TrEMBL record:
Entry keyword set: Membrane
GO biological process, one term: regulation of signal transduction
GO CC annotations, alphabetized: endomembrane system; plasma membrane
Keyword presence, Ribonucleoprotein: no
InterPro entries in the cross-refs: Melted-like, PH_domain
Membrane topology term: Peripheral membrane protein
Gene: melt_2
Full protein name: Protein melted
Subcellular location as annotated: Endomembrane system
């Protein structure tokens, strides 16, 4: 996977910053080892010092939390016309099987708890790293940028990430958001053999045997018709019917 990136997406009516929460340990370690010309050792800051001191606790905490709460692949801060800011979260499927429901798309939801999600994403970055990351690491900098845009609770980023880990109440709040958005209807957490790694996979990645009968049946699974009005001028518009058939892994239609 590629290293974490920050993308700024200009929009007419909002501002958004996207965090791509996929990283490789090699890139993380390399970026965190910044050497000062005046010091023979890598520079450290408050965030790095805190995480270095509590790295084992962070790893243990995230290992337990990841079984209940998936981590977003992308987090975008949006501002609408009423100047209200929300976090748009996008989740990918870790399974990536042959019949994956989200092989080309991401599951999207909006959250009213950006503080908790950003804190989780920060802890996840640290937990996946072999050594504590500093505030100068690109992924940490991007999360800080998101937090600064939110201006949430008038609390600086360093205070957020060095505070107590999200409590049971915060965890329950984000789990309820996931349930309300329908995430738990599509995804579930499973440990896979032989390494025993836990993954958040979609229904067909976790249960590929269920796809066989649906995708390889020669009989049409769904048939129907859709009527729509076509025509450049309103007075000359006429109804047009499209007949569609969903069979196997294809969607076919013909018009009249």
């Amino acid at each position: 996977m590629s290293s974490s990136q920050a993308l700024v997406t200009p929009r007419r009516s909002n501002t958004s910053v996207t965090i791509i929460n996929h990283n490789s340990n090699a890139a993380i370690v390399a970026a965190s080892q910044r050497i000062s010309v005046f010091e023979p050792y890598p520079m450290r800051d408050t965030i790095q010092h805190f995480c270095e001191k509590h790295l084992d606790k962070i790893k243990t905490y995230m290992e337990n939390v990841s079984e209940r709460i998936p981590l977003p692949a992308k987090c975008t801060i949006e501002e609408n016309t009423r100047a209200k800011k929300m976090a748009k979260l996008q989740f990918g499927c870790d399974g990536r099987g042959e019949h994956c429901l989200y092989s080309r798309t991401l599951f999207t939801m909006r959250s009213r708890n950006p503080r908790v999600w950003i804190h989780f994403m920060f802890l996840s970055l640290q937990a996946k790293s072999q050594s504590a990351l500093s505030s100068r690491h690109p992924a940490v900098t991007a999360l800080k940028y998101c937090w600064d845009i939110l201006k949430c609770e008038n609390k600086p980023f360093v205070t957020l990430v060095t505070s107590a880990f999200p409590c049971a109440r915060d965890q329950e709040a984000v789990v309820n958001e996931l349930r309300a958005a329908g995430f738990c209807d599509v995804f579930e957490y499973q440990r896979h053999e032989p390494d025993g790694r836990g993954l958040w996979g979609c229904f067909l990645c976790n249960h590929p045997e269920r796809a066989v009968g649906f995708l390889h049946d020669s009989q049409p699974v769904i048939e129907g018709q859709l009527k729509e009005k076509k025509g450049r001028w309103r007075m000359f518009r006429r109804w047009r019917t499209r007949y569609f058939t969903l069979s196997g892994a294809r969607l076919e239609y013909k018009g009249t």
